[in-house]
Amino acid sequence: MESIHLNVSLLRKRVPQLTKAAKSVGLRPATVSNLCTGKISIARTEVRTLVALANLADCSLDELIVRGERYEMIETGIKTLDLFAPLAKGGTAGLVARPGMGQLVVLAEIFHRLKSEGYTVVVLLPEGDHPEVNDITEGLDHVYEDIDEADQAVQSIGVDHDVIFVADRSHVQNGNTMRLQEKWASLTSVTTFLIDFKGEAVDEEFPFGPLETVWQFDSDLAARRLYPAIHPLYSTSSVLEGSNLEQHHFTIQQKAKRQLRRYRELRSIVRINGVDTLPEADQRLYKRGERLEAYLTQPFFVAEHFTGQKGENVPLNEMLEDVRKILDGAIDHRSVDELTSIGRLT
């Protein structure tokens, strides 16, 4: 079947405040956002919704719907990201978290890993005083306070190299990010990360507008120190749409989501009454969910000095095989502690 999806870059360019504009013409912001990330398939979308979006963008349906294009996944070697919300190359990724949930560590780890793959990181510093930004800029050569200097760097580097561009939400709100992305429309090598240093993004439904990748951080995982604290159910990516994701990956991912969703439902019962009060089938499901949650934690290279653990990189195919084993019960004999903060199953 031919892959079709929304031309998100065109929508972002033509309708900067897309979710607000959508609401003004009777469209649900959640529906528009889910269409942009691929969570809702265009094939299951009402024609009137697509027509309304085309009218907002002042374009034809043929311009709005892109056929046959595939989003390329940037493999990070971080298990939970690659499984649940793959990074879309050339797209825009938004990190949604409150301070202290580990988003800066994840970002620093991404920089560390992608720099070794030949990517150049360009950071546009946030407005105001944010000393925590030093946690992600240490060792980077392209850090700018001036937007024009950042623009020039991206346009110069992006001709021959892949670029990771990073900006704070303040630059989204004042329109700077949109203006830059309009200039870089021809540079398919630029992947943008949007972060919110103030931690206000969590309180808004669509803090960054349309995104290709959303990494939602989970306060429960962070409180239990299960890092990276990426929410497995709320994080998503346009790479998941249609044929963009390999069928094996998609199948494993959906099984893992179902397992973790049911496990989370059972946790409240277990906390009060204990696991032994569950029926045998639910006990088995709960314990496998617990093992999967533990396995998806991972030691980072940038945190070695603090944790004393060596960073681990897990290739996609090996991670998928490990997750399959956990879901199928092949390691039911292993304890949760054995699976916490490891790389591959051994």
Question: What would you note in describing this structure?
Answer:
The protein has 346 residues and is α/β, with parallel strands linked by helices. It folds into 3 domains: 4-67, lambda repressor-like DNA-binding domains (434 Repressor (Amino-terminal Domain)), CATH 1.10.260.40; 73-244, Rossmann fold; 247-339, Bovine Mitochondrial F1-ATPase, ATP Synthase Beta Chain, Chain D, domain3 (Orthogonal Bundle), CATH 1.10.1140.10. The protein is 45% helix and 12% strand. It is built from 17 helices and 11 strands. The strands form 3 sheets. It has a 7-stranded mixed beta sheet with strand order 7-6-8-9-5-10-11, with helices on both faces. α8 (134-137) links the parallel β6 (120-124) and β7. α2 (18-24) crosses α3. The radius of gyration is 20 Å and the shape is globular. The two termini are 38 Å apart. The model has no long low-confidence stretch (mean pLDDT 89).
CA(first)-CA(last) distance: 38 Å
Helix share, percent: 40-55%
Major sheet summary line: 7 strands, mixed
Taken in chain order, the helices and strands follow as EHHHHHEEHEEHEHEHEHHEEHEHHHHH
- Based on helices, strands and strand pairing, what is the structural class? alpha/beta
Number of helices: 17
Spatial strand sequence of the major β-sheet:
7-6-8-9-5-10-11
Approximately what portion of the residues adopt beta-strand conformation? 5-15%
Whole-number average pLDDT? 89
Quaternary organisation = single chain
